[in-house]
Design goal:
Layout lengths: L2 E7 L5 E4 L5 E15 L10 E14 L5 E2 L3 E7 L2 E4 L13 E2 L4 E12 L8 E6 L26 E4 H9 L2 E5 L5 E6 L5 H16 L4 E6 L6 E3 H8 L3 H4 L30 E4 L3 E3 L17 H15 L2 H7 L5 H11 L5 H13 L2 H8 L8 H11 L4 H13 L4 H12 L4 H14 L5 H15 L9 H13 L3 H10 L6 H14 L2 H16 L5 H10 L5 H14 L9 H6 L2 H8 L7 H13 L5 H11 L5 H10 L2 H18 L7 H15 L4 H11 L4 H16 L4 H12 L3 H14 L4 H13 L3 H14 L4 H13 L3 H14 L4 H15 L6 H20 L5 H6 L12 H10 L6
Helix pairs in contact: 1-2, 5-7, 6-7, 8-9, 8-10, 9-11, 10-11, 10-12, 11-13, 13-14, 13-15, 14-15, 14-16, 15-17, 17-18, 17-19, 18-19, 23-25, 24-25, 24-26, 25-26, 25-27, 26-27, 26-28, 27-29, 28-29, 30-31, 31-32, 32-33, 32-34, 33-34, 34-35, 34-36, 35-36, 36-37, 37-39
Length: 902
């Protein structure tokens, strides 16, 4: 099966070629292609091949006047030496190739699936012809024995695919900057894996001419797209990405088990700069291209400027000054960025003159760089622009002025500030620039602006100011410990209107956490809550300050919004609970059934945190009555882990198991609930929790059994002794008995609650002949993990070894009757019967009967999928069965089970 990696959409520009039949033409109108990686036959090996799925909208046309018969013809794709027939699955509207009258045409869609990617992509051809071979008695077969398609004669029409891609893309290349150092390539078609090969030619031509900077963009008004996998390829062509990488290899697109070059061109050299501007980036579906390495939303002028700025950095200054007059905005920006700090005073004067007399666009370009030009004249130019009538230009100039390091900048900013006395928006813009600069020089200006705003806000006026601007300015001042502003905010906080301006200041003062700040927030929040003007920031203040006088009003607000039914109005109950007294909490508890599901969960969390007497009762009620997965209640009870809490969880799990009885498969919701709760209970060492998990392992519902066994295994893996337990097994397999015994003691020291460790030691002691000691270990394991099948099956075997044959065999039969599907119970039952049969005091009649029973149980064990034939052959407990006629068949059956799930 192929793994689809990428979706590639080709342009809709038609391209055609005249066929060998003079009047027959075939055109490609649209094309879509999907690259795929077909894995090899040896998983895990470095193998695999790239292929492509192609969907084409084509037109077949009769240009002549005579009718042409196309009976028996079809559409193929030639990929190298391979001819691939179109996929005919009935899902596409294929062209009807029958007879074409003069001047008639037929359109249709053809698809090709898992098309082998050729070594030479230029060999991809769309072919119209009649299938067949001159000698059908000797057909050509592929590696899988299928007949390779061929044509009975000459093709009726041929369209070279990449040639169509190249011509429909209509790439145009413009050289910009000093010596044409940057190439601007425009395309009229989306950039995909096919157009990547069409781009390879222009790329190689540019590199031969030492052009190492490229910007790709759309041609015309329509914005084209570039797929993310092409973006990965393009980024791989740049030096910073391709350092220490073989040329052409693309690490982000290489699967870990495949060393085949992706279907993209390989270039001998790297580009220094390669950008995609003003194009959409589309997802291809290729999982190895999910890491976005290309941005298409960059503006074209900025992309060109970024590519050219390093060039102008070392170009003659005269050339940079000349290009400041370029008609291409990106060139002008690049020249200015690369040369601005190399200008002499006279050269800078020319730039400043342009700043004063040029077009608005030119002034905007220069304004963002004037702060890099040393000297008072540049500052004066910024000052002049800042106080001009063009708001966009004024904003750019103010930002430059705020970041200028010249001494004259402070005086110029004072002039701008004075001009803003009658233009409030100018002061607001200047304040925003100062805050953004983070420069301490502007603290006094920002403080004055905040003071003016606070005065306005007392009357509910805002002067066009936005809350974000207020938040930024206040944060700027408090970071610098501007005490006058902090005092002023504390005094005037309750009177700030409207609420959206007060809210960010509430949060800032709360985060400050100083007693005077909290007192001011309390006054403001109290007024807001009593007035019913409750927002999220007020609720946050309530959770921090916790005033019980607010509880009733907050609860009323909560209920009003809850009853509105609008999702966006729903609030959390937590602020109410944070403010409530114990008596008020009891009143809320009394209304439990009226609360929403979310509110019940929030109340449960609060009640558990304060250890309220009712919380476990409410949790149990929610678990009993709710149809939803009560994760909050389950987690709280699990964290509390008292006898009462664990009993509630166990009862819930039993009810969930009962609800699954008689079903072949649990529902998705039922599975989710069962898995979550089983995982929680399996994590406890409490014997009753382990008993329930063990009971689930014996359940008649296979899904319940599998879930419990999986969680029991997970619990074992999390034990601190699991690694030592594994080492003990390895040492014993290596016949290093003494070291294995020592390691087993270490296991029991590390985790004395691990029932599997006691079970392991009982087995070791039993085979050493210490039957009483083995039984003591089993009793300890049974105490830790009651009703564990493996423990109980071992108990029956040890009873037999102790000479308590009847008791041991009865225990084995009872266990097998309760879990007839469990391979441990069946296998150890067989061992019990085999050991009973080999005892000296066993009668001939009992020996024969017990051997037959042991064989029957091994046969049943094999039927469960038991596949450890080596253990079966070497198990000393089954020695007496080796002479049984059926023994070889039993071994063979276990061997044939290899690979099946147990």
């Amino acid at each position: 099966m192929a793994l689809a990696f990428a979706v590639i959409v080709c342009g809709a520009c038609p391209w055609l070629i005249r066929s060998v039949a003079a009047d027959l033409r075939m055109q490609i109108l649209q094309a879509k292609a999907t690259t795929s990686l077909v894995p090899g036959q040896q998983p895990g090996r470095l193998n695999g091949t790239w292929s492509v799925d192609i969907e084409l909208l084509i037109r077949v046309e009769n240009d002549g006047e005579t009718e042409l018969s196309l009976q028996g013809s079809d559409v193929f794709m030639r990929s190298g030496d391979v001819l691939v027939r179109r996929r005919a699955d009935g899902t596409e509207a294929a062209p009807r190739l029958d007879a074409l009258a003069g001047g008639q045409s037929v359109d249709g869609t053809v698809k090709f699936q898992l098309l082998p990617w050729p070594a030479d992509p230029g060999s991809l051809q769309l072919v119209l012809g009649v299938e067949g071979r001159p000698d059908d008695d000797n057909p050509v077969l592929d590696a899988e024995g299928r007949v390779v398609p061929g044509l009975s004669g000459e093709a009726l029409a041929v369209v070279p695919l990449l040639k169509w891609v190249s011509e429909s893309s209509r790439f145009s290349v413009d050289r910009l900057g000093p010596g044409g150092a940057l190439a601007l390539i425009r395309t009229q078609r989306d950039l995909d894996v096919l157009s990547a090969w069409a781009l390879a030619g222009p790329f190689r031509d540019l590199l031969r001419e030492d052009v190492e900077r490229v910007v790709l963009t759309s041609a015309g008004a329509e914005r084209r797209a570039v797929t993310d996998e092409v973006g990965v390829w393009l980024s791989g062509l740049q030096q910073n990405i391709r350092s220490n990488v073989r040329p052409g290899m693309l690490p982000p697109m290489m699967p870990p088990a495949v060393n085949i070059q992706p279907p993209f061109p390989v270039l001998d050299r790297s580009f220094r700069y390669l950008a995609v501007a003003e194009m959409n980036v589309s997802e291809s579906g290729n999982p190895f291209a999910r890491r976005r390495t290309t941005r298409g939303d960059l503006k074209l002028p900025e992309s060109i400027a970024e590519g050219l700025a390093p060039v102008y950095r070392y170009a003659p200054i005269a050339e940079a000054i000349r290009d400041l007059q370029s008609e291409v905005a990106g060139v002008r920006l690049g020249a200015l960025a690369g040369a601005v700090d190399r200008l002499t005073e006279d050269e800078a004067a020319a730039v400043l003159e342009r700043a004063r007399s040029g077009s608005v666009q030119q002034q905007l370009e220069v304004a963002s760089w004037l702060n890099q030009i040393p000297g008072r004249r540049a500052v004066l130019a910024l000052q002049e622009m800042s106080t001009g009538d063009n708001e966009e230009l004024a904003g750019a100039a103010i930002r430059g002025l705020a970041t200028s390091r010249e001494d004259a900048a402070e005086r110029a900013m004072a002039v701008v500030w004075e001009a803003g006395a009658t233009r409030p928006a100018l002061r607001t813009e200047a304040t925003a620039a100062m805050v953004r600069s983070g420069d301490d020089r502007w603290t006094a200006f920002v403080a004055a602006w905040v003071r003016d705003f606070l005065q306005l806000s007392q009357n509910g006026q805002t002067g066009g100011i936005q809350p974000e601007q207020v938040r930024g300015a206040v944060a700027f001042l408090l970071e610098r410990r501007h005490e006058p502003t902090q005092v002023l905010i504390r005094e005037q906080l309750p009177g700030i209107k409207p609420a959206k301006f007060q809210d960010p200041l509430l949060r800032i003062l709360l985060d400050q956490g100083q007693p005077l700040d909290l007192r001011a927030v309390h006054r403001a929040a109290d007024a807001r809550i009593r007035g019913g003007d409750i927002t999220l920031e007020v609720l946050y203040a309530a959770m921090i300050l916790r005033d019980s006088a607010w509880t009733e009003q907050l609860l009323a607000d909560y209920r009003q919004l809850r009853n509105s039914g609008r999702q966006e109005d729903q609030r959390s109950l937590q602020p109410v609970l944070a403010c409530a007294t114990a008596a008020q909490v009891d009143e809320i508890v009394a209304q439990w059934k009226k609360l929403t599901w979310t509110a019940q969960n929030e109340l449960l969390v609060h009640l558990a945190a304060v250890d309220h007497r009712e919380w476990k009762t409410l949790a149990a009620e929610q678990l009993r009555d709710s149809r939803d997965t009560a994760e909050t209640a389950i987690n709280l009870l699990s964290q509390e882990a008292s006898e009462e809490a664990l009993a509630v969880l166990r009862d819930l799990l039993r009810r969930q198991i009962a609800s699954l009885e008689g079903t072949k498969d649990a529902s998705a919701r039922g599975r989710d609930q069962l898995q979550r709760l089983t995982a929680q209970i399996a994590g406890f060492v409490h014997p009753e929790c382990r008993r329930l998990i063990n009971q689930m392992c014996r359940d008649s519902n296979e899904y319940v059994r599998d879930t419990a066994k999986e969680q029991r295994t997970n619990t074992l893996v999390r034990s601190p002794a699991v690694r030592s337990l594994q080492q003990e097994s390895q040492l014993r397999d290596a016949d290093r008995k003494q070291e294995a015994d020592q390691m087993l003691e270490e296991v029991l020291r590390l985790d004395p609650f691990l029932a599997e460790a006691w079970l392991r030691r009982s087995s070791v002691r039993m085979h050493a002949g210490s039957f009483d000691a083995a039984m003591e270990d089993l009793r300890r394991a049974a105490e830790l993990s009651p009703e564990h099948v493996e423990v109980e099956s071992m108990i029956s075997l040890v009873l037999v070894r102790q000479g308590k044959v009847v008791e041991g065999l009865q225990a084995a039969d009872q266990l097998i009757a309760s879990v007839p599907f469990d391979d441990y119970a069946l296998y150890n039952g067989a061992c019990s019967y085999a050991r009973a049969a080999e005892r000296a005091d066993t009668s001939a009649e009992d020996r024969a009967r017990w051997i037959a029973r042991a064989v029957e149980l091994i046969r049943a064990t094999n039927a469960t999928g038991f596949d450890d034939d080596e253990h079966l052959a070497k198990d000393v407990d089954l020695q007496i069965l080796h002479d049984h006629p059926e023994w070889p068949a039993l071994l063979e059956a276990a061997k044939n089970n290899t690979g099946r799930e147990r």
